[in-house]
Amino acid sequence: MTLSPFYLCGTTAAGKTALALALAEAWGGEVVNADAFQVYRGLEILSAAPSEAEMASHPHHLFCFQEASEAMDAAKYEALARPVIAEIQARGKRPIVVGGSGLYLKFLTHGVAKAPSGDPELRAELESLSTEEIYRQLRELDPEEAAKQNAGNHRHLSRALEICLMTGGKASDLRSNFADASRVENLEGVVLQWPRECLAERIAQRTERMLAEGAIKEVQNLPADAGTIRQAIGVREVEAYLRGELTHGECLEKITIATRQYAKRQRNWFRRESWLRGVEGELPLADQVAKVRSWVG
After folding, report:
1. Secondary structure class of 246 (helix, strand, coil)
2. Would you say 61 and 32 are in contact if contact means Cβ atoms under 8 Å apart?
3. pLDDT at residue number 71
4. Cα(7)–Cα(254) distance, rounded to whole angstroms?
């Protein structure tokens, strides 16, 4: 019998790792990463990746394997994750796909949104524009896509605008498969949910713990040619601290605020995934497991 993947989603600091480990124990399952920055080596603390002890307790896949200098995106992730999931299933185990990177999970559950390859000249031209200007142009050409994007993420906005300019159409149209209801009929998954104030406190505590436990050293040791990894929340803030542009307290505050803003975007993303069942993060872990098992078995 082939066991279908179980998707464990939620915002940053929601407690996904603890629940994933508990479910792996209950099911004899294996954990598959779906976090955009936990794929990298060298950023384990800042990305809140599972500890070595946690990963040793049950099989974990696609964690902390990518070099900091290498690029990663949702399409590359999907191409790596799909055979891993199939191999787990072939051994009669349940894959537990855990993460908060919405697009990575979307590509797994709904298929890859086909987009044209990048144009180096156009990309260089867009790179020279400010984030505000790129966002303005994207709103004109594809307001639906602009509304879904983080207005401060230069890389994602540039790619969306690049697609619009190259195709003469809309980037949002390329994701028609995302709206296909038939693709979620047999999916099983949950989203961990917290009251906003409680999550904000968890984020503040975790950020303080990260900086105390070595996140600053991680950023200091990043290679000069690090690429996508520099988009991780905290990298730029810590680099500014290391240059003397921020005090330790200011660095902590900026990372905390940026993480809260990211959590808000994650909440909005997962709210649109109506197939996900909600599990209260405040429940004791044993009760979370019992609730999931009452749905999945």
Report:
1. coil
2. yes
3. 87
4. 31
Instruction: Tell me the average pLDDT of the chain.
Output: 91
Kindly report each contact of residues 144-150 with a partner whose C-beta sits within 8 Å and lies 24 or more positions away, as own/partner: 144/170, 144/172, 145/170, 145/171, 145/172, 148/172, 150/265
Q: Which residue has the tokens 């909440």?
A: 267
Q: Which domains, from first to last, does the chain contain?
A: 6-112+187-296 (3.40.50.300), 120-178 (1.10.20.140)
Residue 200 to residues 11, 100, 146, 284, 292, Cα–Cα distance (Å): 11, 16, 26, 19, 25
Of 228, 224, 103, 119, the closest CA to residue 166 belongs to: 119
Q: Please, is 99 exposed, middle or buried when counting C-beta atoms within 10 Å of its C-beta (0-12, 13-18, 19+)?
A: buried
**Structural tokens at position 129:** 């524009």
Q: How far apart are CA 28 and CA 92, in angstroms?
A: 10
Percent share of the chain, pLDDT over 90: 67
Amino acid (one-letter) located at 149: Q
What sign does the dihedral 31-37-40-42 (CA atoms) show? negative
* b/e per residue 134-154 (b: at least 16 CB within 10 A): bbebbbebbeebbebbeeebb
Q: How confident is the model at residue 222 (pLDDT cuts 50, 70, 90)?
A: very high
